[in-house]
Amino acid sequence: MSCQIDPSTIEATIAFHGHSCPGLAIGIRAAEIALRELPGVGQADLVCITETDMCGVDAIQFLTGCTFGKGNLIHRDYGKMAFSFYDRKDGKGLRLLFNQQARGALDQEMAALMGKALPTEAEQQRLQALRAEMQNRMMTLPAAELFAIQPLDQAPPRPARVLQSLACEDCGESTMESRTRRFAGRTLCIPCFARIEQKI
């Protein structure tokens, strides 16, 4: 079944992101599936773990209300187009892994054009047409063709906590306690630790 989110909400999502693209469409569909599979979850109880930092994460923020600031959007930099969603209240969760085959035959031509250092005007126009076609494909394919959908049985991540801040003993800047490092008996922020400890 194609995307069931109303067009005005999709337009608002595009405005939030700044442009329309296939990656954003993937995020729209992931959010749609999560909201359908975890109905009635309040914004404070819905959690998303994203394994990518691509365009689709903006759609997930806009449509689900999961944000870094609230502590219910967690980025794990795995480079995978995968999104896990949890309901903290009942512990139910699912992981959506994008199916690369969903891109179809358009993918190779798009990749070739995107890889050109100096594309001609005709190539740029063709690339724009392919991107629009790919975006339409992402919005109309059935969810089962877009994602491998796996139920999750592990517990959802704990809610965000306010932690003590400590002063870095090198630069003096206030740093969340859990992000400090100890070195030679001193408490350091991550950048100072990395500069002093040469193994990193």
From TrEMBL:
Its EC number is 1.2.7.12. SUPFAM superfamilies: FwdE-like (SSF143555). The keyword Cell membrane does not apply. The keyword Transcription regulation does not apply. It is an enzyme of class 1 (oxidoreductase). Residues 16-147 form the Formylmethanofuran dehydrogenase subunit E domain. Residues 168-198 form the Zinc finger DksA/TraR C4-type domain. GO terms for molecular function: formylmethanofuran dehydrogenase activity; zinc ion binding. Keywords: Metal-binding, Oxidoreductase, Zinc, Zinc-finger. InterPro entries: FmdE (IPR026328), FmdEsu_dom (IPR003814), tRNA_methyltr_O (IPR053194), Znf_DskA_TraR (IPR000962). This is Formylmethanofuran dehydrogenase subunit E. It comes from Desulfoprunum benzoelyticum.
